[in-house]
Amino acid sequence: MISGKSFVGGPDYLRKHLSCNDYYEKGETVKGRWIGAACERFGLKLGGEVSEREFMMLQDNKNPVTEAQLTRRKNTTRQTDEGSVANRRSFYDFTVSAPKSFSILAVTGGAEKVRMWHQNAVDIALKEMERFAARQDHSGKTLDGIERTGNFCVATFSHDANRALEPQLHEHVIIFNATASADGHNYAIESNEFFARCGYFTAVYRNELARQAIESGIEIEFDKHKAPQIKGMGELVDHFSSRTKDIEKLICMCEEVTGVELSRAEKKRLSLASRGISWEKFESLWKQSGCGRKWEKGDFGFQFANLVRKSSDGGLSETTTDEVISAQKDSMNDEQRKMLFKLAEKVKNANPKSIESSSNAEAMEFAIQHVFERKCIVPETEILQTALEESCGKVKELGEFKNEFSRVCGNSSIISLGNMLTPTAYIEVENEIREIVLNGKKSCVKRIRDFLPSDKLSSEQAAAVESIVESDDRFLALVGDAGTGKTFSVSEIVRAQVENEVPVFMFAPSNG
Prior knowledge:
Blueprint: E1 2-7, H1 13-18, E2 24-25, E3 33-35, H2 52-59, E4 77-80, E5 83-86, E6 91-97, H3 100-108, H4 112-131, E7 134-136, E8 146-148, E9 154-161, E10 167-176, E11 179-180, E12 186-187, H5 192-195, H6 198-215, E13 220-222, E14 228-230, H7 234-239, H8 242-258, H9 264-273, H10 279-288, H11 300-310, E15 318-319, H12 321-330, H13 334-348, H14 360-371, E16 378-379, H15 380-390, H16 398-409, E17 414-417, E18 420-423, H17 424-439, H18 459-469, H19 486-499
Parallel strand pairs: 2-15
Antiparallel strand pairs: 1-6, 3-9, 4-5, 6-10, 7-8, 9-10, 11-12, 13-14, 16-18, 17-18
Helix pairs in contact: 3-4, 3-13, 4-6, 6-15, 9-11, 14-15, 14-16, 18-19
C-alpha cells in the first residue's frame, strides 16, 4: 500500500532513517536515486545517486547547484507559546509497501526477480503520482484553484525490513516541496492532491506487481485489504507479521474503550508511536493510567498514543543485512523453509508468458455501478481505483485502461465537474428533490402547542429546537459539529411531537 506523512524540518531524517535500512547496517548505507521531471530543472541528474548535500539543500528550499531559493515563500517560521518553530513543510515521505508474501519471497527467499517486480511497480505508480503534482492557483483561471504542474523532484530509498527485523520490502518516496509552474516560477506543492489519492496509487502499484507475478506463473490470491498475495504463503505471512499484530492489537484496544472506529490518520499515529514497543512496559503504564478511564473522550486518542510512545524505544538495531536474513531463515521450521525456497526457485526459472487481459469496459462498468450505488458525486480516481481493484493483475497497459475510462465518461450519462463525476440521472433526481423541498415551504399546518423545551438545553440548542417545532415548512435540517448536542436536541423535538399526539417515525440509512 501507499501512505504518506509531511515533514517540517527533519534535519536528521536522511542520515537516521533513509540512508540505513530499518536497522543500522554496519559499514553500509542505502543509496537513493533521483526521479521526476523537476530534477534536471533543479540541477540534478535524473536516475542519479542522491548525495547528502543535494538532499539537504532541497530540504532547505534551495537549488543544489545555484543555492538560490526555490520557492518564493519567506515565512519559514511562526511564533508559538514555546517560541519560534519551523513553518514550511520541507518534504513528504510516501511509503510504498509490498504485500507481505512478496516481501518474504524477495528478502528471506532471495528471489531477486520479485525485488525487480516491486521496483517496476513503484516506478509506474510514481509516474501516475507525478501527473497529479500541483500547486495552489489564486488567479481565478482554474475551476478548483489548483494548477496541475505535472512535475516533481523525488528521492527514493529502498528498504527491506521493518523495525521488528521482519522482511518488509518498501520504498521511501521523498517528494520535495517544490514544483515548476507554467509561468516559469517554482511553487510549493499542493500535497492533498497526493494524500487524497493514496488508494488509487496503491491500486496502480498492486496491479503492476500482481501482473508481473501472474505472467511468471505465480498464483495470486487477495487478502481482506484487497492486496495481492502469493498463494500458499499464508502461514509464512502470519509468521512474519508480529509488527502488524502489535499495531492491530493497539488499534483494537483503543476502539474497544472509546467505541469509535479510528480514522486512517489516528491508526497511522499509533503505528508510528509503537515502533519497538515493550508490551510489559505498556501494560504497566496502562494500569497506572487507570486504563484510560480518566481521560477526556475527545483527547483519548492523543493520550493513548503518548502512552504507547512512552512504551516504545523507536530506535534501530545495529546489525547487518546478512545477519537479519539469517535470523529470518532460522525462525522458520524445515517445512516452511522448503516451501519458500522451492517457490523462489520457481520464480528464478520462470519465463514470462502472456496472460489474457481483463475487459477494461466490464471493469469500468462495474466500478461505475459500485461507486455510484452510495454516492452521487466522486473524484474520477475513485472510479479508476475501484476498476483496478476489480481487475488487479490483469490490466496490461494503464494508458489503455484510462482511455476506456475517458470513453465511458465521454458519453451523455456521466457529467464531469472539474475532477469530479456524477451521473446525469442523479442531477435529474436532485433537481426533483430540490423542487419538492422548495414547494414544501410554509405548506404545513402547525400542530405543536404549549411546548416548553428542557432547561438543560443551551440557549443555542433551545433556539434550534423552538424554530424546528414551530416551523410550518415540510422539510428541515438540524446541522451541527460533533459534540454540539444534536442528539439531545432531536430528543426534545421528538418529545414535542409525542406530547401533541403527532406520530413519529425514525430511521437511519447507515450507522455512519
